[in-house]
Write a structure and sequence with these properties.
The chain is of the alpha/beta class and 314 residues long. The protein has two domains: 30 residues, no CATH class; 258 residues, 3-Layer(aba) Sandwich (Rossmann fold), CATH 3.40.50. Helices cover 38% and strands 15% of the residues. Strand 9, helix 7 and strand 10 form a beta-alpha-beta unit. The structure holds D-galactaro-1,5-lactone. D-galactaro-1,5-lactone binds next to loops.
Length: 314
């Protein structure tokens, strides 16, 4: 049984050879290899769904040196697919296709689906039915771990004046955010009922740098996303966890202390980009409800409540 002090060093850094030794690892071991209850466990065959999208494009590059058996899937092949990448074309709404993509897979990073607000039919098919199909295919294939790409929009209707922990009542700000609440629930169901280790990451905004004032609070440096994914795929004993997918942001609205307990040490600091983000913000139109709530324009879009009343109650 690993002690908590050791856990707090997870994933171990190569700059800490003693941690590698205590965990039973060698520096020559392939990344993703670990010791669980005295056995060598390997997590190499990892599937990334939605790999042609914005986050997927970062992860194709960043996960390639980490997982030797990386497989990527999407509805259409990425235009810049490289010869050493294994791509499987799979539409999440077609169970047979997604089952094929899951064959022989140990861990999944599920990014696939519709990544912004959309019509109900689109969200229903891509993010609800598609997500269910993915979890079912994973269960049938004996997948051990799933990272579900949830979103800050699952809780977007909290005001920016509030700091929220992971254990918070959902306040989705859109049909898109609602689908992420569904996905988080699905993750908990498959974790406790089927024994798949699931991590829901409430991702903020993955980008090279924060692009406006709201993103200073929710920015996620792509390399920090990899750290979160590695915790979810590799940390021994994980059942079901929720973490905020954000970097070390001074203006954060999230209490991400649970992620820290699980070993997350973000390197990105949005403070380093404040001047540029404020300059970009100055060019954006004012948005009464959007600027008040964490979810921004996802909250103000299609808004029909009386804002003054809602503000006084939030
Ligand atoms: C998300 O969940 C979206 O997928 C992404 O496109 C951004 O809009 C991001 O949230 C955000 O809030 O910036």
């Amino acid at each position: 049984m690993l002690g908590m002090d050791l856990m707090s060093q997870y994933p171990p850094k190569s700059s800490r050879p003693e941690a590698w030794r205590v965990l039973g690892l060698s520096r020559n071991m392939a990344p993703g290899t670990q010791l669980v209850h005295g056995e060598r466990q390997s997590m190499q065959r990892v599937l990334v769904t939605g790999a042609a999208g914005g986050i997927g494009t970062y992860l194709r590059r960043l996960l390639k040196p980490v997982y030797s058996g990386l497989v990527i899937s999407d509805m259409k092949q990425p235009a810049d697919l490289e010869s050493d990448e294994k791509f499987i074309k799979a539409d999440l709404t077609k169970p047979a296709e997604i089952e094929k993509a899951c064959e022989g897979i140990e861990g999944i990073v599920h990014l696939g689906g519709f990544s912004v607000e959309g019509p109900w039919e689109t969200i229903l098919n891509a993010n609800i039915i598609g997500c269910y199909n993915l979890f079912e295919a994973a269960r049938k294939a004996g997948v051990k771990r799933i990272i579900f790409a949830s979103s800050n929009h699952a809780v977007g209707f909290y005001p920016r004046t509030t700091t929220i922990p992971t254990e918070v009542i959902p306040r989705p700000d859109s049909r898109y955010g609602l689908s992420k609440v569904f996905g988080e629930g699905l993750g908990a169901l498959y974790a406790y009922k089927h024994g798949i280790g699931v991590t829901s990451l409430r991702i903020g905004n993955v980008n090279d740098e924060p692009i406006d004032v709201r993103r200073l609070s929710i920015w996620l440096k792509p390399e920090d996303l990899v750290k979160l994914i590695r915790i979810g795929l590799e940390r021994p004993g994980l059942v079901y966890e929720v973490m905020y997918g954000v970097s070390d942001n001074a203006r954060s609205w999230y209490d991400n202390s649970h992620a820290a307990e699980l070993g997350y040490k973000p390197e990105g600091r949005s403070k380093d980009y404040e001047a540029a983000a404020f300059a970009a913000q100055a060019k954006l139109p004012k948005d009464e409800a959007g600027d008040f709530y964490q979810g921004g324009t996802f909250c103000s879009s299609e808004y029909s409540a009386d804002f003054a009343t809602m503000k006084s109650k939030s």
